[in-house]
Design a protein that fits this description.
Layout lengths: L2 H16 L2 H7 L5 H14 L12 H29 L6
Organism: Bactrocera dorsalis
Protein name: Cytochrome c oxidase subunit 7A, mitochondrial
Keywords: Membrane, Mitochondrion, Mitochondrion inner membrane, Transit peptide
């Protein structure tokens, strides 16, 4: 085998191994099924409906958000009570 043929063969092998799968699929005019599913999910989350992205999921997302807000408010209230108890002296009755 000549050195020129060997060089072409090595280029072909390297190009085959380093070309990404989406690029190879595009070269074959094939689109993966997952691409369309991903596009549907992206459209759902990028829709302009006034909701923040972390609430656009399912009911579980809304439940977790409300639970987080409630626990945060309870923690802030507990801290306020602690600061009040520590700053106001108790009567000596």
């Amino acid at each position: 085998m000549s050195s020129k043929n060997m060089l072409n063969l090595s280029r072909t092998v390297v190009r085959t191994l380093t070309t990404s799968a989406p690029r190879r699929a595009a070269a074959k005019n094939e689109v993966e099924k997952g691409y369309f599913e991903l596009k549907k999910v992206q459209e759902h989350f990028q829709k302009h409906d006034g909701k923040p992205v972390f609430l656009k999921g399912s009911f579980v997302d809304q439940l977790l958000y409300r639970l987080t807000v409630a626990l945060s408010l309870a923690g802030i209230g507990g801290m306020a009570k602690l600061f009040y108890d520590l700053s106001v002296p108790k009567s000596q009755d």
